[in-house]
Amino acid sequence: MTHSLLILFLLIVFQAQAPQQVKSAKEYFDSGLVRLQKDDVDGAIADMSKAIELNPRYVDAFFIRGQCLLLKGDGERALLDQNKVIELAPNARGVERVYNNRSVMRLLKGDIEGALQDLQKAIELNPNYADSFSNRGMTRSLQGDQAGAASDYEKALALNPNLPAVYINRGILRFERQNLEGAMADFNRALEIAPKTAKPYVDRAVLHTLAGEVDLALADFKKALALDAASVSEKDPGMASSPFKRLQSFISSNPTNARAYEARGILRLVQRRRSEAIQDFTRSLELDPKLRSEIDRLMSLTF
After folding, report:
1. Closest CA to 104 of 143, 69, 136, 152
2. What is the DSSP string of 56-92?
3. Are 86 and 98 in contact (CB under 8 A)?
4. Which among 71, 128, 127, 56 is positioned nearest to 101, based on CA atoms?
5. How far apart are CA 180 and CA 259, in angstroms?
6. What does the pLDDT look like over 198-225, one tens digit per residue?
7. Domain 175-303 part of CATH 3.40.50
8. Are 108 and 137 in contact (CB under 8 A)?
9. How do residues 262-289 score in pLDDT, each as one tens digit?
10. What's the Cα-to-Cα distance from 175 to each of 3, 146, 280, rounded to whole Å?
11. Positive/negative CA dihedral, 245, 272, 268, 280
12. Closest C-alpha among 62, 77, 72, 73 to residue 32
């Protein structure tokens, strides 16, 4: 065998025997980000897990994996990852977002006090982070602190006037406080910013009905159904009360308001609960017989 052939043979042998290059933690992290951008959440979780295996103190990998787990509906494991981020970097720049995110997870588990503690810490770390004020407002509202909630919503909007969630939540709060004009303004603004969000269409439809604008109400209900059928459910999938429950409360406070029964009747009609809708329409007519032609038209509708 010539020297050149021998050298070539040895190179081939050594290359075949050499171990394959192992990816670094950073490479797995970068790969996970690419997968996440392609909506491959499972792949992103796998890559972040590998990055963490190689570097157990990889804060960014814990953070991204936690967000991915939350997208998958695995709140328990997501919370563990957010806890790890805070353990490793409790005062790092940007960690207020982790406290803010963890507050939502705690709130979903019913831990209002824990959520408030996280939000207070987020605000201390960054008093210009609007999302923390927004979520604290929602948390305070759930706690029954309407004045505190209203104050936090104002602060959130002062920092960022383009957050649709704040307008939605403040609109709900205003409705609960029977500030119907203010509630309508908030739902309108939310829909200007995020026209493909179903929830505010339902709440605005109720307000339109209370104002006697039934055709506008029906248009909003149809839009909500087209965007997300669950938005008209009696049980709200989020943390706030459902439009149905808010309307129930409004009727309790205004038992002689014919339009309120009409609004609940339409909502029940949209929910395909026709027999209950008819009961509401009947009560509405008892309170205001002038609504006869309008109610007759509504009772002929199907959704």
Report:
1. 136
2. TT-HHHHHHHHHHHHHTT-HHHHHHHHHHHHHH-TT-
3. yes
4. 71
5. 13
6. 999 999 999 999 999 999 999 999 999 9
7. no
8. no
9. 999 999 999 999 999 999 999 999 999 9
10. 89, 12, 21
11. negative
12. 62
Strand (E) or helix (H) holding 94: none
Smallest CA-to-CA distance from 75 within 64, 87, 88, 66 is with: 66
**The pair of three-digit structure tokens given for residue 140, joined into one six-digit string:** 């305070």
Round to the nearest angstrom and report the end-to-end CA distance of the chain.
Answer: 86
Instruction: State how far the Cα of 23 lies from the Cα of 208, in Å rounded to an integer.
Output: 59
Helical H runs in the chain? 3-17, 25-37, 41-54, 59-71, 75-88, 96-108, 112-125, 130-143, 146-159, 164-176, 180-193, 199-210, 214-227, 243-253, 258-270, 274-287, 292-299
> pLDDT digits over 69-120, tens only?
988 888 889 889 989 999 998 888 889 999 999 998 888 888 999 999 999 9
